[in-house]
Design goal:
The chain is α+β, with helices and mostly antiparallel strands. It is built from 13 helices and 50 strands. The chain has an eight-stranded mixed beta sheet with strand order 41-42-45-43-47-48-49-50, with helices on both faces. Strands 8, 9, 10, 11 and 12 form a five-stranded antiparallel beta sheet that branches. Strands 29, 32, 33, 34 and 35 form a five-stranded antiparallel beta sheet that branches. It starts with a helix and ends with a helix.
Length: about 850
């Protein structure tokens, strides 16, 4: 597992939500509320750094954060265009600051060492520092720094930066375009970067006409164009001009040693770009007209090209497609799609074409065909293989002793929610493929895990092979919770050897195995220990002998991981949370479906002394095709309990028992499963309350339910269709399914195909039945498809008009999730006030 994969795994594991900067204190006239101090202290606690490790496992970058940003960060200028949100002043993606400082140290330094702070300008200027991008050998890195009016690219030599913090600005005044794509990308030579620049010839931002130039016109041509509900779309010709101006990009290659910049071709609306393994070609996509006011830019017209990496000249136009707004729901476009490089060939493109018209409802012996096309792309592409179900991707395997070009090819059966993976020898297609994986996408207990990867000299990441075997890591789901593992899988016969599994009572997962197979990097935590990172020595035990050696497991051998050597020593920012009692509980629904939840109880609580508590149930419904996978446990009671931000778990400090992630499975045929949605969630809710009462910790006469997004939709439905709850808390939900008429969540039918189901699933239809008080919270600029702020506004108006009890809180500048400190504190305050009034203190 390399570079971004490793960094992401590390960052995800230790992320904690915490304090907001004193400079962002609310103004005297602020109406933002503050929750009880016990909760406010948790929300405002100082965060641990995030971590990034270079590909060679030599260097560690600590990424220092302020806490949740002030709402003023979210109030920066914003353009909402073609499904995205952008800051026109920076020409980047709109959003709050990421990091406020970076420090660099050796990975094997003392775990308490913070490293040398990099001399970046962000701290003084209030800018945002991005995540580092390492070159292949870890000798250099780049960082994007976003100021109020621009994005700069900074670079450093690792050894020098770790000594004196030295870094330097790279683009010499040229502006980086962060709106049209991601970070700058290292080329395989380790000294060059592929970057996106704002064209020097681009003029000022277009000015909005004072007088409209004409009406906004849309037209249907008589063909089906069933699209989901999207937000932030283009609205008129002026938006089109803004989009063209913002996305205009000049591709360039920059030498980080000299700063010399070589322009690649002409400016254009460049979308995704990827360098071929041999470094000679660039696969590039251009956004093209026609545009649409109904779909985001990912479905606009597009031209896919292969460019020469030296001159930027077009080598081959692969395809040109028009507006793609007629793709069937859960279908794919017709014609060539999904161009990608073969990681194991110098310059070979892989792509797929639908054989069923792209519509999953059409009958077909094979749904897709996969092709290969070799440089210089003067000949025809050749067919590689056909898939019975929808082709869902190809992952390449590191060259090995077999001498074959191996690839794992996956296909997805929509009808069964089933994925099958085959092992192909792409250079020996006369040999039939062999089946590697064949299981439900919901089957956590039998998930074989994912291969660790290795970066080849050409810069491509492929599945790692040692001694003819893959390394696999996975969550190791069990009925008692997750126990991560490390396996080896033979490519000869797919037999697996369990090399290591996390001990009971704790949670440790493998991040990577060093190239010499002598050490394993892990993340470790337990209910008592804050997440930190460790290096563990690999030992092979054979026939009772304990010998330190590279891991080469054979029959009769077992791999042991020696004692952990700490790499970090992050401290718990909220030690009071450790006093919270946490337990995995399991119970059964009346139809035999097994359910589970994680129960949290307040510090110092004793049920014999204190009696049952007011109970808060937090949930999110999911669809399943069978009872067995629906009943699998997804909770992990052995992880460290973390709270902060808008977390509902903070309610334990207000005297509530909290059932978190209470499973709400909706089981049935994928086409009709929602016909019994309401019946099944009510049954699940009743089973959860019964269990809490049976345990003696929950007062069934004082129960509230809550959820976010689809969980908010569930919450409103429960209040409308049962009398089990005293109150509800619904955040960022959708409540009227006629406003999402071309499907939602797992619903495949349109409103006109399942009118009765759409109507019955809409709590808006039954607003008069919502008698229990409902607190609705919504971001004023929610960007999630379907959960328009109007959804909450209309349901609130309906409940109010029909005499019900409800409260609507609209958070300024917030999207589908809530990012600002002021918003987080306010959400916590409103939630506690609402539940205390309508649940805890009711008689």
């Amino acid at each position: 597992m390399r570079n971004l994969t490793l960094a992401t795994a590390l960052m995800t594991t230790i992320t904690t939500i915490s304090a907001f900067a004193p400079a962002a204190a609310a103004q005297d006239n602020s109406t933002y509320k503050r929750p009880p101090e016990a909760i406010a202290k948790i929300v405002e606690a100082s965060p641990a750094p995030m971590v990034s490790i270079d590909p060679t496992h030599t260097w560690m970058m600590l990424m220092h954060r302020e806490s949740l940003p002030p709402v003023s960060d979210l109030a920066a200028p914003m353009l909402r265009l073609a499904g995205g949100r952008f800051n026109p002043n920076t020409n980047g993606v709109h959003g709050p600051r990421q990091f406020i400082g970076l420090s660099l140290r050796r990975l094997d330094a003392d775990a308490n060492e913070q490293g040398v702070m990099l001399k970046l300008p962000a701290a003084a200027a209030g800018a945002s520092i991005g995540r580092p991008a390492w070159n292949l050998d870890g000798t250099r890195f780049t960082i994007a720094v976003t100021f109020a009016d621009r994005i700069e690219l900074w670079t450093g030599e690792t050894q020098a930066a770790a000594t004196d913090g030295s870094v330097r600005e790279l683009l010499d005044g040229k502006r980086f375009n962060g709106a049209s794509g991601g970070m700058a990308r290292w080329l395989a030579d380790g000294t060059s970067l592929l970057v996106r620049l704002v064209p020097e010839s681009r003029g000022e931002m277009p000015k909005e006409p004072v007088v409209p130039t004409g009406p906004v016109v849309q037209e249907s041509s008589g063909k089906k164009a069933q699209v989901r509900t999207y937000q932030d779309l283009l609205k008129n010709s002026y938006d089109e001009q803004l989009f063209d101006w913002l996305m205009a990009t000049q591709l360039a290659v920059v030498d980080v040693r000299t700063g010399a910049t070589r322009m690649l071709g002409q400016p254009g609306l460049w979308a995704g770009v990827d360098v071929s393994p041999d470094g000679k070609y660039l696969l590039a996509g251009q956004i093209a007209r026609p545009y649409s006011y109904l779909v985001p830019s990912s479905q606009f017209g597009r031209i896919d090209l292969v460019l020469d990496m030296q001159t930027g000249a077009t080598v081959k136009q692969l395809r040109q497609v028009g507006l793609r707004d007629q793709i069937p729901i859960e279908g794919v476009e017709t014609g060539p799609r999904g161009f990608m490089w073969n990681d194991l060939a110098p310059a070979q493109l892989i792509y797929a074409e639908a054989l069923d018209g792209g519509d999953p409802k059409n009958k077909a012996e094979h749904r897709d065909q996969v092709f290969a096309w070799d440089a210089p792309f003067t000949g025809e592409a050749r067919a590689l293989l056909k898939t019975q179900h929808r082709y869902s991707g190809m992952n390449f395997i590191e060259p090995n002793a077999m001498g074959s070009m191996l690839a794992m090819v996956s296909e997805y059966d929509r009808d069964r929610k089933w994925e099958t993976t085959w092992l192909y020898e792409l250079d020996k297609l006369a040999n039939p493929p062999r089946k590697m994986r064949d299981l439900s996408v919901n089957d956590r207990y039998n998930d074989p895990g994912s291969p660790l990867t290795r970066t080849l000299p050409n810069g491509r990441d492929v599945a790692r092979v040692d001694e003819g075997q893959l390394w696999l890591t996975g969550q190791g789901a069990t009925p008692a919770g997750d126990r991560p593992f490390l396996d080896r899988e033979s490519l000869a016969d797919f037999t697996k050897t369990r090399l290591w599994q996390c001990a009971e009572g704790e949670y440790e997962s493998v991040i990577d195995v060093t190239d010499d197979n002598k050490h394993v990097l892990t993340s470790h935590q337990s209910p008592e220990k804050f997440p930190n990172f460790f290096k563990r020595e690999v030992t092979v035990v054979t026939m009772g002998r304990d010998s330190q050696a590279p891991a080469k497991p054979k029959t009769g051998t077992e791999l042991h991981l020696r004692d952990r050597t700490p790499l970090t020593n992050f401290q718990d920012p909220t030690p009071q949370v450790r006093e919270v009692k946490k337990e995995l509980i399991k119970y059964m629904r009346d139809d035999g479906v097994e359910l589970s939840a994680t129960l949290y109880l307040p510090p110092g609580y004793d049920k014999d002394r204190d009696g049952p508590l007011p109970l808060f149930i937090w949930a999110y419904p999911l669809e399943y095709t069978d009872k067995s996978t629906a009943g699998q446990v997804s909770a992990t009671p052995t992880t460290f309990t973390r709270m902060g931000g808008i977390s509902h778990l903070c309610l334990v400090f207000a005297g509530y028992a909290v059932m978190d992630a209470a499973t709400m499975p909706v089981v049935g045929d994928p086409e009709t499963v929602n016909d019994t949605f309401v019946t099944q969630i009510v049954a699940s809710a009743k089973a959860a309350i019964d269990k809490a009462e049976q345990l003696g910790v929950g007062d069934r006469n004082r129960v509230a339910v809550g959820g976010h997004s689809y969980g908010a939709f569930m919450t409103a439905n429960l209040l409308a269709h049962c009398g089990l709850f005293k109150a509800g808390v619904a955040r960022s939900g959708a409540y009227n399914r006629t406003l999402t008429p071309f499907g939602f969540q797992g619903e495949r039918r349109t409103y006109w195909e399942a009118t009765d189901t759409y109507t019955k699933m809409s709590p808006f239809t039954y607003a008069g039945n919502i008698k229990a008080p409902l607190l609705m919270i919504h971001g004023q600029i929610d960007n999630n498809p379907g959960t328009f702020p109007m959804q909450s506004e209309r349901l609130f108006a309906a409940i109010k008009g029909l005499g019900g009890t409800a409260k609507l809180v609209m958070l300024p500048y917030e999207s589908h999730g809530y990012a600002a400190m002021e918003s987080a504190l306010h959400v916590q305050a409103e939630t506690v006030e609402w539940l205390d009034k309508h649940v805890k203190n009711v008689k």
